[in-house]
Amino acid sequence: MKSPEEKQSISPEGIFFNAFDYFQARELDIGSLTRIALAAGCPNEETAHRVLASMTEKGLL
């Protein structure tokens, strides 16, 4: 049986998509998105920045 943490895990990409859905995009900067990702369980700041940069380059955000 999965632990509650495993059941509720979300990818870093999902964290950023949810943040953009919940907040108005103009309220979000890199620092805010990084803090949201870390609070949601992203392993570290470097991973959050890498995922955000990749999503931005791909035009997802």
Structural features:
single chain; 61 residues; mainly alpha; 4 helices; 62% helix; globular
Q: How far apart, in Å, are the first and last alpha carbons? A: 35 Å
Low-confidence stretches: none
Radius of gyration: 12 Å
Helix content: 55-70%
Structural class: mainly alpha
Count of helical regions: 4
Instruction: Average the pLDDT over all residues and give the rounded result.
Output: 78
The beta-strand count equals: 0
The shape is globular
Oligomer: single chain
- Biggest sheet overview: none
Percentage of residues in strands: under 5%
Output the helix-strand order. HHHH
Task: Summarize the helices and strands and which ones pair or pack.
Blueprint: H1 4-7, H2 12-22, H3 30-39, H4 45-57
Description:
Helix content is 62%, strand content 0%. The chain has 61 residues and is mainly alpha-helical. It has a domain at 13-20 and 28-61. The mean pLDDT is 78. This is HTH iclR-type domain-containing protein.
Outline of the structure:
The protein has 61 residues and is mainly alpha-helical. 62% of the residues lie in helices and 0% in strands.
